[in-house]
Every structure is written in C-alpha cells, then in structure tokens.
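User: Could you go from structure to sequence for me? I need the amino acid at each position, not a summary. Structure tokens:
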C-alpha cells in the first residue's frame, strides 16, 4: 500500500531537482555572453521602445509655502530584450525568470523636476521579470519630492496641476524611446486624501532638445489635476472672518455712554488680524498670483481700521457735548424714515419770568425747529452703520462671486 506513495514522492523530488537543474542551465545559457552595457538589440541602429505606465498610490504632502509635492508613485516599464529569448519546452516549461537588476540592461530614468536625487529608481528596487519571448517588465517605486508651481488665486476653490517628467539617462531618442501605455495615469490604487481630489490626469510623450547640441530626448509627461477640498478652510477661516467682520459693524449700535464702544471695535480688529496671520502662514510668499482670500481679508482689515477710527471720533465728539456736524445733516425731502433726532436751535430759554396769570412759563427766543429750517439731522452712529454695512456687503458678495466664477 505504501509503494505508490513512495513512487509519487520520488517523481516529485526528481521533477523538482530537474527544474532546478534546468533553471541553472537556462541562466548559464542566457547570461554566458550577456552584458548589461549594450542595448538589447542585435541591430544597434534601431531604438528600444520602453512602454511606461505611472501609478499614483498616495499624496503624502503638498507644501504650499515652499511649493513642493511629496507623493508615493510606482511605474510599470516594459521593453523587449532580444538577447533574453528561449524556448520554454527546452527548459522544462520555464516561461519566466527573475534575474538581479544589475545583471540585465534596463532604462535608467531620471525625474527632471525632482528636488532630491534625480535617478529615483535605484539598483535595489525589486520587481523585474523576464519572459521567454524576451519581454521584460520592471515595476520600480519611490517617494517623489518634486517642485510644483501653484496658482492660489482662487484658494480654497483652486485646482492645481502637478507634472512629472521622465527621460532616459544617457540615451537620446534614436536609442531609447519612451511610449505611454495609457493616455492617463493609473489611479485605481490611489488612497483617498483628505485635502485633495484627483480630478483628471494626462500622459503623453514628447521629444525635447537638451543642451546646446542637436540631440533630442524622448520625454514622458504625466500631469495630474488636483482639486482642493474647501470645507475645512471654509469652516475654520472664511466663516469666522465673515462673522467677525459682520459683528464689527454693530459697534455703531452701542451707545457712547456704555464705555465699551472703542474696546469692542479694537477687539474685532485684533481678531481679524489674527486670522489674517493664520492665512498668510498657509500661502506661499509670492506676488505672482495674489490669492483673492488675501485681498478679501485686507479689505476687511481696512474696513475694521476705519470703523475704529470712526468710533473714536464719535466718542470724542460725544464727550464734548457739541451739536452734530453738518456732515450728518441731510435735506428734508429725504423720503425714507431714518432713526435720528430733530435738531432745535435754541438761543435762549428764560424760565425766570412769570406769565401774567402768575404761572411760570418758559420763553424761547430765536429758536427754530427742524421743520422750519428744512433739515433733518441723523446721528453719526446710524450713518456710519449704513455706510459700513453697504461696503461690507459689496466686498463680501464680490469675493464669493469671483471665487465661484
């Protein structure tokens, strides 16, 4: 009963031993005269086509101040090696091998926009496979630290374009040509990011001249359109700023007798200054494209400063107990009712005299009511509140209209 099991075990061991021997013989036959110094073509006048596909795994960080993108990327590279072709039936059905990177020829790609070592794919990068028909696939991966030009005019509703550029090291377009396998990048393995959404991607190749010579190099371009998620910035910065600037207008609703009029205006001014410093820390130090949010905060800061100045003048004027200035006098044909006080110009009020009937009676001399003078006098607080409210509405509505345009 045990004899069949013994025979099967011997057959398996023999096949395994035979496979190992065949693998050794295959490596010996393939790499006996092979050299990674030469392009894998018998006719060296032809060029090697390298098919490329970029896979974006995740966005690690987008540094808006330094304008740097850090991403996790791996690239699928495929080409044909005419020196590594064999018949699988001659080697016990072996259809693929995995030689070390340093033993075979491969295209050394450099990332031109990298801020670190431009040869981003090192010799210790795994993942190379050679098939019996000479097809070679290599899937190197790395964390890219690349420079990017950010246009933050519509921040935080902006869409940024990030670009990767690859070209073969030391080989011009007559020797090695890069071919994009897809018209877009592969984002199926992309890990969702809390700040950015990948809206679009493009992949294409182009030949560019490098240096003063006439050599042209095949270059692979990969472009991504990243759309920012604006919810966090709207709730943490924009909404508080709008509410604070709106509350700042109500400083003119406080009476001068309360004693907190100026301190209220100064507190709102300091709050806006604090939020403006937070926003400035998030944006790059560049004047090429000034963000609309910075201009909006600057306008609100100017409105707040003017409201503080107006508040101080009103309080000082009220402390001197002087009549309203002509600035706050409007014609009597003003059709809308407006909260204010009619002015009475009283030259003299004499209450010492007595009427003929013996009852005290005040005597007004030289006095004219506002209906006689043809003017209607409103308070400085009311006029300032209307003016600043109109300016605030215009600035805020203009800001949001420009953002969504």
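Assistant: Here is the amino acid at each position, in order:
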């Amino acid at each position: 009963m045990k004899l069949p099991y013994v025979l099967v075990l011997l057959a398996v061991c023999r096949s395994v031993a035979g496979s190992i021997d065949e693998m050794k013989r295959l490596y010996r036959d393939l790499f006996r005269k092979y050299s990674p110094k030469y392009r894998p073509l018998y006719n060296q006048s032809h060029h090697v086509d390298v098919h490329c596909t970029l896979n974006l795994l995740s966005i690690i960080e987008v540094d808006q101040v330094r304008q740097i993108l850090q991403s996790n990327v791996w690239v699928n590279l495929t080409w044909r090696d005419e020196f590594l072709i064999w018949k699988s039936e001659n080697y016990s059905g072996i259809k693929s091998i995995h030689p070390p990177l340093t033993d075979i020829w491969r295209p050394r790609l450099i990332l031109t926009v990298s801020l670190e070592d431009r040869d981003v794919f090192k010799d210790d990068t795994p993942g190379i496979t050679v098939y019996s028909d000479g097809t070679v696939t290599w899937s190197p991966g790395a964390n890219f630290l690349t420079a990017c030009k950010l246009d933050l005019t519509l921040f935080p509703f902006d869409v940024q374009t990030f670009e990767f550029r690859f070209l073969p090291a030391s080989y011009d377009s007559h020797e090695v040509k890069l071919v994009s396998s897809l018209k877009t990048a592969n984002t199926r393995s992309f890990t969702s990011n809390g700040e950015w959404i990948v809206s679009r991607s493009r992949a294409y190749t182009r030949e560019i001249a490098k240096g003063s010579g006439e050599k042209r190099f095949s270059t692979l371009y990969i472009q991504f359109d990243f759309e920012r998620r604006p919810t966090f910035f709207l709730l943490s910065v924009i909404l508080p700023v709008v509410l604070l600037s709106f509350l700042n207008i109500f400083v003119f609703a406080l009476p001068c007798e309360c004693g907190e009029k100026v301190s209220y205006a100064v507190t709102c001014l300091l709050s806006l200054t604090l939020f403006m410093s937070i926003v400035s820390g998030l944006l790059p130090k560049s004047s090429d494209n000034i963000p609309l949010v910075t201009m909006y905060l600057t306008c609100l800061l100017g409105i707040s400063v003017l409201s503080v100045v107006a508040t101080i003048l009103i309080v000082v004027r009220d402390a001197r107990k002087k009549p309203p200035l002509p600035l706050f006098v409007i014609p009597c044909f003003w059709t809308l009712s407006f909260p204010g006080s009619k002015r009475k110009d009283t030259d003299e009020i004499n209450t010492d005299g007595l009427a003929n009937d013996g009852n005290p009676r005040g005597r007004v001399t030289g006095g004219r009511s506002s209906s006689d003078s043809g003017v209607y006098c409103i308070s400085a607080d009311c006029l300032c509140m209307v003016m600043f409210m109109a300016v605030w509405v215009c600035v805020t509505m203009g800001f949001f209209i420009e953002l969504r345009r």
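One structural detail worth keeping in mind: Residues 3-18, 324-377 have pLDDT under 50 and may be disordered.
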